[in-house]
Amino acid sequence: MDDLNEKAARRRKISHAVEIAILVVLFICFIFPFILVIINVFKTKADITTNPLSLIGEHGFTLDNFPEAMRKMNFWRSFANSAIITIFSTIFTILLASMTAFVIVRNKWKACGALFGLMIASMVIPFQVLMVPLVSLYGGVLDILNHRATLIFMHVGFSLSMATFMFHGAIFTNVPIALEEAATIDGCTRWQTYWKIVFPLLKPTIATVAIIDAMAFWNDYLLPSLVLAKKELYTIPIATQVFYGTYSTDIGLVMAALLLAMLPILILYMFLQRYIVEGVTSGAVK
Amino acid sequence: MDTNSMSYKCKQFLMFAGVTTAVFAAVVIVPFIYGLYLTFTSWDGISTQKPFVGFANYAATFADGAYWQALGRTMIYSVIAVILVNVVAFILAFLVTSGVKGQNFFRAGFFVPNLIGGIVLGYIWKFVFNRAFVALGESLSIGALSTSWLATTNGAMLCLIIVSVWQYAGYMMLIYVAGFMSVSADVLEAARIDGCTNMQSIIHISVPLMVSSFVQCLFLTITRCFMVYDVNLSLTKGEPFNSSVMAAMHVYNQAFTYKNYGTGQAEALILFVVCAVVGVLQVYIGKKAEVSA
Predict the structure, then answer these.
(1) Is pLDDT of B100 > 80?
(2) Average of per-residue pLDDT across A213-217
């Protein structure tokens, strides 16, 4: 009996070691492209061209790629644009979607049903179907493209359906109606009840929606590229794309630009990793 | 206060959902309907007039060989990418739930590609395929690597598939991880006592109980692959010789590069219908296969 247990234990140990080995190999494959960027960003253009795989170039370690890439892609300006657009879009999405979900969950009115139904149905519409009419309406008819506010408005419009759906689920299952009734008896209006009782209870869902939407807004390329055609309004993805188009042969600068484009979100990920992984999972599973 | 009166209801609805309704309508509903109208016009993007042309755009779409080629190419790409993404994601999920040390670290690492936008990912991989792989091929004298894969027709497709698998596997892994966690330990314990090997309990216990995870991952990957644009733009830009133009890129070019807005919109609508049918069919079939313990 002891012998059998020992055998089983040994077998478990071996399979364990195999699993770890496979994981490590896969892990290296996954981060290999990032490692390549990091080792090449500190090399001169000539060194990258002669050997992109060497750890340190013949001309040694250099930081020169960064300031030049930052200047040429107008990094801080794009960063500020991306940040403003992401932050405001996310805040508006959360406020509007949670309020809407509240009125939809708590009332059986026709308008609520109709709005919610339309929102759910609209979630299958891909952006490609809307891009031409959007440009035609907002560019041709209203002529309000090339404003950050327009992009924020559109971001919010596109993300409201999904966010309302998620808040709907959260209010339906996690906010006890007895609490709201108690607040009403104590003299709260619906508006006060919402802000004092319901909204604070939605914190976990707010975090999830904030993470999913902020990442989507930050990384979005197609919509911003259609709305923002002026250089001073470029977001980071647009700036990266335009930069690559102009300086693709200056590979050292390209490496620096790519690393700079990734860095803000990677730094954030280091600190908020657990929340991001949890948020994305719970957002997807809903 | 009469909470049943029409004016109370209107006020409440407008107070909580008024802005949402307006924004949602302005960004999604109105453009969608307006887009349907645009398919019957020949707008060039500049003039204020949008001449009505009936079904000419749909006729042009059916005659647009490049569009159907792009659509067919997108389907081939999607089928291969969707299968590979899910196979890799499932294996990753299995490995990071098997109780190895540092599994949270691995989960976090595999997820990293999802944090970064498609444009940046495409350029990174362009460097990998064009420079790093070629350098590796030269130094180890491996013939298959000595020229860039991006330079050949099939190679460019292969590159797109590799990048997509790399990009989405980590995300789908998280969903499969949630699926693995939801399979109760009791059931697995019972299977083990009945003499199931690890492999058998995965195939006969975990997989059937995780059908909803599969449905979800398949839906997400199918819709994303069908609409691939960012990576397509930055990695291959449709080259060589337009052989890697996917449907979404073709639609974009048709509308914004060649200024055939009406035809572009008609092609976008057809793409949407195809994608929606495939997606819904998949969910419908998947739901039927769901079981509970």
Answers:
(1) no
(2) 90
Distance CA B259, CA B249 (A): 14
Residues 6+ apart with CB under 8 A from A40: A48, A52, A251, A252, A255, B127
- Sorted by where each begins, the domain ranges of chain A are 2-50, 73-247
- Best mean pLDDT range from A223-232, B38-47, B126-135: A223-232
Is A32's CB within 8 Å of B178's CB?
A: no
Residues 6 or more apart in contact with residue A107 via CB below 8 angstroms: B9, B12, B13
In a domain, B59, yes or no: no
Q: Which CATH architecture has domain A73-247?
A: Orthogonal Bundle (1.10)
- Helix (H) / strand (E) containing B288: helix B261-288
Q: Work out the minimum CA distance from A192 to partner chain B, whole angstroms.
A: 12
Best CA proximity match to A81, nearest among A211, A245, A206, A240: A240
* Diameter over CA atoms, chain B: 84
How far is Cα A176 from Cα B8, in angstroms, rounded to an integer? 23
DSSP lists the bridge partners of residue A26 as none
Give the CATH number for residue B73.
1.10.3720.10
Structure tokens at A183: 């607040």
Beta strands in A126-237 (DSSP E): none
Q: For B255-265, give one letter per residue: b (16+ CB within 10 A) or e.
A: bbeeebbbbbb
Task: Name A135's Cβ contacts closer than 8 Å, sequence gap at least 6.
Answer: A145, A226, B45, B256
The whole domain housing B265 covers 66-288
Distance, in Å, from the CA atom of A261 to the CA atom of A75, rounded to the nearest integer, reads 8
Given B28, B216, B251, which is nearest A128 (Cβ)?
B251
Compare all CA atoms of chain B with the CA of A249 and give the residue at the minimum distance.
Answer: B127
Is it the case that residue B285 has pLDDT exceeding 90? Answer: no
- For chain B, what percentages of helix, strand and coil (3-state, to nearest 5) are there? 80, 0, 20
Structural Rg of chain A based on CA atoms: 25
**Contact assignment for B109 to A241 by CB distance below 8 Å:** no
In a domain, B26, yes or no: no
- Examine residue B33 and state whether it is found in any structural domain, yes or no: no
Residues 175-214 of B with CB under 8 A from A: 175, 177-178, 198
Residue B199 CB coordination number (10 Å): 8
Q: How far apart are CA A67 and CA A73, in angstroms?
A: 10
The C-alpha of A260 sits at a distance from chain B's nearest C-alpha, in angstroms, of: 10
Distance of alpha carbon A113 from alpha carbon A121, whole angstroms: 12
CB B185 within 8 A of CB B155: no
pLDDT digits (tens, 9 = 90+) for A163-192: 999 999 888 888 888 888 888 888 888 888
Q: Does any domain span residue B15?
A: no
Closest by CA to A31, choosing from B115, B100, B102, B110, is B110
pLDDT in tens, B157-168: 999 999 999 999
ipTM greater than 0.95: no
> How many domains does chain B fold into?
1
Separation of alpha carbons A42 and A256, rounded Å: 8
